[in-house]
Every structure is written in C-alpha cells, then in structure tokens.
Amino acid sequence: MNKTIAFFDSKPYDKKSFSDVNKDFGFDITYFDAHLDAQTARLSDNFDGVCAFVNDTIDAVVINEVVKHGVKIIALRCSGYNNVDLNAAFGKVHLVRVPAYSPFAVAEHTVALMLSLNRKTYKAYHRTRDGNFSINGLLGFDMHGKTVGVVGTGQIGKRLIMILKGFGMNVLAYDPYPDQEFARATDIRYTPLEVIYKQADIISLNCPLTKETKGMIDLNAIEQMKQGVMIINTGRGKLVDTYALINGLKSGKIGAAGLDVYEEESDYFFEDRSLELIADDMLARLLTFPNVLMTAHQAFFTAEALHNIALTTLNNLKEYFEGGFLKNEICYKCDKPCRKEENKRCF
User: Fold this and answer.
1) 4-101+302-337 and 103-294 share one CATH topology?
2) What band does 335 get if pLDDT is binned at 50, 70 and 90?
3) Which of 297, 322, 341, 342 is catalytic?
4) Catalytic: 304?
5) At what angle do helices 12-22 and 303-321 cross, to 10 degrees?
6) Tens digits of residue pLDDT in 293-324
7) What is 103-294's CATH topology?
C-alpha cells in the first residue's frame, strides 16, 4: 500500500517490529526519534498518516498542525489516549488505537513486581554481586492466604486474577462494570473500593485513566488502608497521587510500592537519562526509597505484544485507507472505543 506514515518517538524495537510486520502491508514508513509535539508536528508534512505513542503530545496545536499538512488519521500504537485532546480532534482527524495487545504481558509483569518486592530479589541480586550472602533484612511473606485487591477487571485484570488464584490468594475486585459470571467461575468477590482499601494486603491498579479514576490513590484512600500495604500500579501514572504515595511510604502505612508508570513520566520514561540529574523532585524522592521498585513503563514489553501492536496499528491504517469500518476508532462523542454501526464514522 503506497501510503506514507510519519512514525514518532521511534525506538530500535519499534523499527524492528513494525518493519517486520509491514512486509505484509507495504506502507512507506519514516521513523522519527523525536516525540510528536508542537515543535515536531511540522515533520508530518507530505505524509498521509501519523503514528504516535503514549508520551506524544496530541493537543489542539498539534492536531491543527498535522491537519494543515494533510494528515487525515492519527494511529496510536497503544491502548490509552489520555494524551489526546478529543474535543480538538472532533471533525478534523480520525483517531485509532490498539485496544488490546497482550494482557498476559502486563499481568505477568504485575506479578513480577509483587514477587520482587515481597522477596526482595532486587536487593539480593545486588548483595550477592558484591559478595554479601547475608539474608538479614530480606524477609518476605507467603502470598498464599493473603488478600489482594484488583482494581479493574478488563482483560489484564482477569489474567492477573487467574495467576494470583494460582498462589492461593483471596481476591477482592472492583470494577464499575463487574463481570459476575467471571466472579462465579473464579471464586472472587466484587466489592466497593473502600472494602479493598481496608482489607487488602496488596492492591493492584489495572484500570484506565478517567475522570473518575484520576488520583484515586490519594491521602484519603491511603488512610483507609492496612498498615504495610503493598501498592502496584501498572495502569496509568495519574491513578496515584505521588505526593500522597510518598507520605504513605514515609509513615510506613505503605510497606512497598511497585510502579511501572508515573504521573509525570513523559520526560523520562523510554529515554536514557543516566548521565543527567533528575530534575523531577517527586521522581527523585521515590527512587530513594528501598521499598519502591520502579520500572519504566515496560509491562507491555514482550515480543508477542510488540508484534500484536504493530499488526493492529498497521491494520487500523489499512482499514482507513481502504475506506472500511474502523473498528478501533475512538468515538469523540462518548470518549470510548467507537461502537458505531458498520460503515459509519464518528464524525
């Protein structure tokens, strides 16, 4: 397909996965290392479409600029779209996303964070590398019999629950749209958030970022939690109020935190900043805690997920350019994945 795509925020693994899958599509892809923002949007000139990622800025300025250059579609190679100004996009440009790529990848990484924090394997690794074979200070707890609260029971949350049930854990779940059939099949219980806060030994956030969930883990929520609770966030950074999290860690209310996302991650995650000072005071403070394990938004990062992301993204573009129904288009009116009837657009 002789259509040109401007690919922003490209990394070596992006180029490999997309180039491999593109052999079956034939798009003319130009890879740009730069993020898509107000300064780089002009690079979209003479391209038919744009491909963007989670830390690209797709606000009114960027949207107007790419539209001015003739771009009709922006393909997000991710599931979330909280970085997009939907009101600015309405009536101007089509927006498609990757609603699912590998729920197993994120669920498994979530469990990896839990186990690493509990059994302190990251500390043990550094000790033994230095010739220190003491196990003092590395005490963990049995996962079996503990209560875990899973916030969000979409595909990722469900895969996570199935893994945790294998440990023999008691699972409490919260979702505004509970799947009671799944609950009966897996012997879990849906509860209000307040019950999870009060009873869970571990709380895992696997929900999208919405107006309702933004900052859901705040000072009030933490105050309700059990002493020494473990919090895991592989959802979106802004689900957690970082100031409240730091205070909870300092007081000991939060016993451990595993973070694959951070609310102000866009200037740091996916980039090598090892030769620079961290100017973000909150991020720098989090990294000083011995009971905080942070990974740089890598929960999705498996070979299978990268392949699926590339395949879905390029197929989204193919559907648009062939004039077909865009099953992964975001509906600007309802701020949800488009569920319009076939052959109807969101605008």
Assistant:
1) yes
2) very low
3) 297
4) no
5) 50
6) 999 999 999 999 999 999 999 999 999 999 98
7) Rossmann fold (3.40.50)
